[in-house]
């Protein structure tokens, strides 16, 4: 019977332990090397890149909208000016449930379905972490009511802005025009013209009339504020500010009182009147009736109001003074008469008897005058007084 050795081979176990410890040490050394290499890459090699990214997250450029230029009449009366309005804004990324917040705001600031629809439309085309208007032109009561309940609405705040205002309503719409919210077409046009950056803080743009034609003059230059923010996006301190440059004021040749007087004469009719200064050619009045209130468009006109204007049989949206096409009729007779006298085609003594019609030689067709029985004897003076077509036709004028 063979006896079993009761002594363990500690030398073999020791060698195995050493090998395992060496492998573990090498593994730890390798992982430590990888970690150090990554730290070196982040802290040394790519330091500038990550520092820039960090500053971009910490330092923000906040654009500051310029004040739009004022439009005056010839006597220095402001026809289009700016007034402070308050609007409630929301940053959706800071709100837990946007729809619940909108529903809760209904009773606080009298939010309507149109307001909510406009908010959703604006949100769809806005960048992340951008404050989006929820309701504009808040009353003092609405501002106070929200201030009391603001603790209920994180991510929602009231801000004050300068907004365009037309103090004389419909009196000058077809001349001054109006500003309204910037839409996608405006963005594309501004981007194409290289002007989009100058509208970073601007919500409105000239859409019609003087406001549109002189947009570059009236708008001004956008400024900016460099601020430091925390990880929640809240401003900690201001680092730098470049003040915006206000738009230039414009003085027109229009006379407000004359404009309003003509409007009272044309009240209830569809007509247009243009009054010019014969010495300078300046337009003193340009009236198109009926008209409409341009203030409806500043904050975005409702579908109901726009449909009312669009379907109005009196077509108030049409500028009859510039867009209307009318036959000159007898208004050209004085100019034709002066030209004929100057050219010697007729004289002051040229005359004829008017039977009430004129017949084209070689034709049986007769062109009748407005007075069927004729004007009798006519000369150039009486033909203008009577607006007699036969005198001008007979003399080939």
Automatic annotation (TrEMBL):
Source organism superkingdom = Bacteria
Cellular location(s): Cell membrane; Membrane
GO CC terms in record? plasma membrane
Question: Could you mention a single GO BP entry for this protein?
Answer: regulation of cell shape
Where the record annotates domain Penicillin-binding protein transpeptidase, the positions are 272-393
Q: Which UniProt keywords apply?
A: Carboxypeptidase, Cell inner membrane, Cell membrane, Cell shape, Cell wall biogenesis/degradation, Hydrolase, Membrane, Peptidoglycan synthesis, Protease, Transmembrane, Transmembrane helix
Q: Does the keyword Protein transport apply?
A: no
Xref: Pfam families: PBP_dimer, Transpeptidase
Is Ribosomal protein a UniProt keyword of this protein? Answer: no
Signal sequence extent:
none
Q: Chief subcellular site?
A: membrane
Membrane topology reported for the UniProt record = Single-pass membrane protein
Q: Name one GO molecular function term.
A: serine-type D-Ala-D-Ala carboxypeptidase activity
Entries under SUPFAM superfamilies matching the protein: beta-lactamase/transpeptidase-like (SSF56601), Penicillin binding protein dimerisation domain (SSF56519)
Return the broad EC class: hydrolase
Q: Taking every annotated instance into account, which residue ranges of this chain make up the domain Penicillin-binding protein dimerisation?
A: 64-239
Q: Which InterPro entries match?
A: Beta-lactam/transpept, Beta-lactam/transpept-like, PBP_dimer, PBP_dimer_sf, PCN-bd_Tpept, Penicillin-binding_protein_2
EC number(s) stated in the UniProt entry for this protein: 3.4.16.4
Q: Where are the transmembrane segments?
A: 21-40
In Swiss-Prot or TrEMBL terms, this protein is called Penicillin-binding protein 2
Query: Which organism is this protein's natural source?
Result: Citrobacter freundii
């Amino acid at each position: 019977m063979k006896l079993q050795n009761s002594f363990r081979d500690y030398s073999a176990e020791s060698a195995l332990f050493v090998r395992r410890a060496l492998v573990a040490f090498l593994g730890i050394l390798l992982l430590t090397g990888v970690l150090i290499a990554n730290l070196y890459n982040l802290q040394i090699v790519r330091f500038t890149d990550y520092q820039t990214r960090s500053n971009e997250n910490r330092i923000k450029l906040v654009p500051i909208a310029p004040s739009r230029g004022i439009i005056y009449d010839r006597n220095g009366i402001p026809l289009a000016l700016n007034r402070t309005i308050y609007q409630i804004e929301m940053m959706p990324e800071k709100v837990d449930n946007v729809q619940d917040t909108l529903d809760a705001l209904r009773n606080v600031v009298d939010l309507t379905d149109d307001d909510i629809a406009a908010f959703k439309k604006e949100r769809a085309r806005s960048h992340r972490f951008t404050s989006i208007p929820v309701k504009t032109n808040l009353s003092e009561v609405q501002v106070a009511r929200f201030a009391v309940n603001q603790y209920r609405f994180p991510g929602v705040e009231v801000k004050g802005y300068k907004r365009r205002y037309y103090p004389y309503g419909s009196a000058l719409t077809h001349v001054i025009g109006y500003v309204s919210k910037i839409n996608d077409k405006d963005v594309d046009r501004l981007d194409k013209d290289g002007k989009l950056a100058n509208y970073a803080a601007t919500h409105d743009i000239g859409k019609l009339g003087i406001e549109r034609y002189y947009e570059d003059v009236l708008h001004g230059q956008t400024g900016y504020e460099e601020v430091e923010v925390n990880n929640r996006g809240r401003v900690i301190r201001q680092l730098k500010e470049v003040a915006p440059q206000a738009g230039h004021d414009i003085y027109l040749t229009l006379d407000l009182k004359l404009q309003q007087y003509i409007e009272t004469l044309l009240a209830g009719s569809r007509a247009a009147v243009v009054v010019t200064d014969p010495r300078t050619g300046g337009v003193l009045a340009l009236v198109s009736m009926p008209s409409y209130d341009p203030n409806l468009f500043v904050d975005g006109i409702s579908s109901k109001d726009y449909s009312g204007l669009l379907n109005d049989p009196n077509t108030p949206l049409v500028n009859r003074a510039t867009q209307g096409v009318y036959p000159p009729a007898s208004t050209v007779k004085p100019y034709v008469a002066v030209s004929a006298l100057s050219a010697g085609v007729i004289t002051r003594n040229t005359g004829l008897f008017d039977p009430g019609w004129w017949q084209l030689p070689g034709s049986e067709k007769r062109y009748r005058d407005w007075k069927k029985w004729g004007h009798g004897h006519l000369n150039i003076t009486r033909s203008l007084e009577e607006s007699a077509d036969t005198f001008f036709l007979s003399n080939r004028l």
